[in-house]
Amino acid sequence: MAETNGSTSTELLDIATRVAGWADSGEQVEVFVAEELETEVRAYQGAVESFTSARSQGIGVRVVANGRQGYAYAGTLDSSALSETLQEARDNAAFAEPDEFNGVAQPDGVDPVAFDLFDPSLDDFSTDEKVALAVELERCTLGADQRIAGIETAEYADTRCESAIATSTGIAGASRETGCYLATYAMAEADGETQTGFGYSIGRGPGALDVELAATEAAERATRLLGATKPQTSKLTVVLDPWVTAQLLGIIGGTLSGDAVQRGRSFFADRVGEQVAVADLCLLDDATNVDAFTASAVDGEGLATRPNSLIDSGVLQGFLHNSYTARRGATSSTGSAVRAGFKGAPGVGSQALALRPGTRSRQELIAGIDDGLLVQGVTGLHSGVNPVSGDFSTGAEGLRIRRGALAEPVREVTIASTLQRILLDITEIGDDLQWLPMSAAGVSLVVADVMMSGA
Amino acid sequence: MLDHQLINRTLSAALSTGAEFAEVFVEDKKSSSAMLDDGKVEELTSGRDRGAGIRVVVGDTTGFAHTADLSEAGLAGAAEVAAAAARGGGGGTRTVSVGSSGVSAGATAQVPPEDVAKTAKVELLVRADAEARAVGPQVSQVAARYGDSRRRILVANSDGLLAEDDQIRTLFSVSCVATGDTGLQTGRESVGRTIGFELFEETDVAELARRAADRATTKLSARPAPSGTMPVVVGPGGGGVLFHEACGHGLEADLVAKSASVFAGRVGEQVATPLVTLIDDGTMAGEWGHFAIDDEGREAAHNVLIDRGVLTDYMWDHLRARKQGRPSSGNGRRQSYQHLPMVRMTNTYISNGEDDPDDIISGTGSGVYVAQLGGGQVNTATGDFVFGMTEAYLIENGEIGDPIRQGNLIGNGPETLKLIEAVGNDFAMGSPGTCGKDGQGVPVGDGTPTLRVKALTIGGTAA
């Protein structure tokens, strides 16, 4: 498979293959092993506030026997833990109820894309250089604008992650990737009022990081909210910042999982082939897109990832599947098994969602709006959005749009609609598509008839 | 958990670059869970995490490294990495002898979950599923989850402290979907305590399941939530999340030290109406945020943060307290040995007032009654916070009326504290929560009596 060029990856694959080989007859075993090296440097007042160096590893084992599934994990790759973990997963399986659709993935003949997510320059990037970047980020953030009074955090972080997956059904693959980022959270002050803003820069290796970009973005986001007031309640057109759009897409992606659909937790169930969004909306989930920071050649069950069209010209195309939901839905896996590390069995979900961008810039979108709100950030997505019912309500901050131009900042408001309505109320998609450090790309999105609740 | 001589040698190694303070945190955590969904016991999961985090402090710089290798070599390696990251001027050898202070607490669970047969855990799930579905034909889906954990920790530091704790937690939750002409709705209930399997002697999972199913079916007839600013009554137990967000986070000394809190520099000031007494209390035995020692080895404490409206103190961890030359308040917590400790809440609550809860509702002309809250978020630097309402009703003419759909409420912490105009005498603890901060989640509890906020903004869609 792709990316089996690292020595550690090979060692991990050896472990995974060995444990999977211990499967008894009549039993399926899936083994996931991972090792991660992480560094995090936080700067404060020109010095290192904290320096964290971490190496973690672990194994997760899924056993399916007689249709029953069990899972166990251990935060170590000690040889004694390997067999204990398999045994514990076996024991757990005995207490679950049988489900004819249970099972690990079967090789499906789809080749994983070949791409390189590993930047070897990270290995040569010294501790002193990492510290210097974090300190420089803080300095630049503080210097970006006279009104920046302090920072909450300024940090450099990197990760070097290797993993392997092997099954008793013949899947065996390893992968490795690197990532690093700069993130800063600035506080702007004027007339006794404080506002905050974040900025970041991300890449596979340190060469991609841009201190100025992160610092300037944080300062701009914080300072432009200074003087914000709470507006009157009204229904208006909102322009969602790419960050907000990406968060919204993540929630919509959840409702398109085969699991949510099959278990009666998605308002999209039974709607394939119907117009669920405006006609120029196309939504694709594609982990083979190397530009996505969540790109991956294989999914959480070891199958090749592939592009999946979810909504095309506003028409619902289908759902995302792992091997379980595919069997249950009498269809094929879409390579959409996702797993959050070794501590749990793979689920199903979106990996790299993106809307097809439009042709006009954000400025042009704003120029066409008489009375609106540019939503720079939202809060409480986990508490005010219900992906089952579709209710959507979040805290918001941003700038009013008046007669085609950005106007005064607003704070302490909510915006509300439903996920179903939002998809049908989108009036335009911007041209500013950008991949963000989450499983979706952002783009400016114009949505009409959203309730802004304020004073 | 670890030989004392080995701890002493590890701490000495951690101090070898001239640091002022070094700490070893050892954790051995076993977790197990069982999940029922779609009518089937789907999967049981169990896991073990064991390792040590080593922290070295010199001046304002902290070096941190962790390892899953608890051998002499593994610990020495981690100590060396942490020490290299926090280099002092001096260097040389400092001998450490732990054990001169610190408590050693044993497990308080009567029935350790690891001694309970897996079939008993599975039976709870099956019972919850049946009870929830029996509520009515509209209940279209049920998920139930059982979880337990046993977390043994040891903290030793270069001040000679050696402390141990054995923390057992047990959790059960039920989530239901109801289907009707208006679409799908959800209802959730959970219970979690820092005790063992005896949780199910005091809690009836059937009752829990019925409440979750009732919540989902009731919401099928919910109206769109209103928009705009109006009085809000929060029912007993639920309001804890409001205070957790409105001021709890803002009273954490690490955020205060960076002036990233609207409550910085305000100790001694009247920050809330005199009805408000806010307490953070890690000593509340059995509660979800309880422990004997925090993750820096400090004993849990009962800390009054706001006394009848006056801000009395912040919450402190070792690092921030040391800088101020005062003791920690027992609020230094971390998600696991892989994380640095920081200031965290434990069980945060508003103590009882004197109002009759019925009078609080009937004295509200029109507004919103929130029976269950669903998490929240705050920007401590601006004080703006949100919290979700997962079960709420309109109040009309002083009476609880129609249910309304899910949404967020938004307010500003310092402003909201001054708008608390009634506090009831029906104190209750709320549901178990996981508080997220800086990427780390820790178990927290909260509680309140019924209370009324004169004005909060409801994030609904109705005009």
Percent of sequence in beta strands of chain B:
35-45%
**Sheet with the most strands of chain A?**
6 strands, antiparallel
Give the end-to-end Cα distance of chain A, rounded to a whole number of Å: 58 Å
* Portion in beta strands of chain A: 35-45%
Shape of chain A: globular
Number of strands of chain B: 22
In DSSP terms (H or I, runs of 4 or more residues), the helix count of chain B works out at 10
Number of discrete domains of chain B: 2
Q: Say what oligomer this is.
A: heterodimer
Radius of gyration from the alpha-carbon trace of chain B, in angstroms: 24 Å
Give the structure's gist in a few sentences:
Chain A is α+β, with helices and mostly antiparallel strands and 455 residues long.
Summary tags:
heterodimer; A: 455 residues; PmbA/TldD fold; 10 helices; 22% helix; 37% strand; disordered N terminus; B: 463 residues; alpha+beta; 7-stranded mixed β-sheet; 6-stranded antiparallel β-sheet; 22 strands
Descriptive notes:
The complex is a heterodimer of chains A (455) and B (463). Chain A is α+β, with helices and mostly antiparallel strands. Chain A folds into two domains: 216 residues, PmbA/TldD superfamily (PmbA/TldD fold); 228 residues, no CATH class. Helix content of chain A is 22%, strand content 37%. Chain A is built from ten helices and 20 strands. In chain A, the strands form five sheets. A six-stranded antiparallel beta sheet of chain A has the order 3-2-1-4-5-6. The longest helix of chain A has 17 residues. The N terminus of chain A is likely disordered. Chain B has 463 residues and is an alpha+beta fold. Chain B has two domains: 218 residues, PmbA/TldD superfamily (PmbA/TldD fold); 233 residues, no CATH class. Chain B is 20% helix and 40% strand. Chain B is built from ten helices and 22 strands. In chain B, strands 8, 9, 10, 13, 19, 20 and 21 form a seven-stranded mixed beta sheet that branches. Chain B starts with a helix and ends with a strand. Strand 2 of chain A pairs parallel with strand 3 of chain B.
